[in-house]
């Protein structure tokens, strides 16, 4: 119906809302995400995510990461999208909850491209989770940028998600094999 705005497609825990328009070029949002099952507890996954200085050892998308995990903190990340040269970005943490999620905001071109990047852990059981890692694009040019770079972004998110899952599962196997001493 004319004059009725569709509901938002995403509302971040930090209180930000992306519009739900279907025309990506008109400022409606675009989302690119990778999800993977992980046979490890949320704490194991979070320990890896929260250890920013170690990202270079396992993360093909962000080969360097510095900063503090706190709301409003600026991270310094070296972003390496498949097929691109590395570039440094400085997003701002919007929200983080240990063993659950981290969301950060990035903007470029004076806000013409804006995005919310997220890593979220959904607990399925004591030793199993779903790891989601993706980005929501807004701003006047954000959805166009996302559509133009969709393959590289999806590949980067997939490589990062699979690497994080493999590292968490290996860490969990190592922990589970450590014999406990008798009390």
Word description of this protein:
This protein has 183 residues and is an alpha+beta fold. The protein has one domain: 2-Layer Sandwich (Alpha-D-Glucose-1,6-Bisphosphate, Chain A, domain 4), CATH 3.30.530. The chain has helices at residues 42-50, 55-58, 142-148, 150-177; strands spanning 10-11, 17-18, 30-38, 62-66, 76-79, 87-89, 92-97, 101-108, 113-125, 128-138. A 5-stranded antiparallel sheet has the order 3-10-9-8-7. The N and C termini lie far apart (70 Å).
Rg (CA only): 18 Å
How much helicity do the residues have? Answer: 25-40%
Mean pLDDT: 86
Q: CATH H-level name... which superfamily?
A: START domain
Whole-number count of domains: 1
Estimate the strand proportion: 25-35%
If you consult CATH, what is the topology?
Alpha-D-Glucose-1,6-Bisphosphate, Chain A, domain 4
**Termini separation (Å)?**
70 Å
Architecture, CATH level 2?
Answer: 2-Layer Sandwich
In short:
With 183 residues, the protein is of the alpha+beta class. It has helices at residues 42-50, 55-58, 142-148, 150-177; strands spanning 10-11, 17-18, 30-38, 62-66, 76-79, 87-89, 92-97, 101-108, 113-125, 128-138.
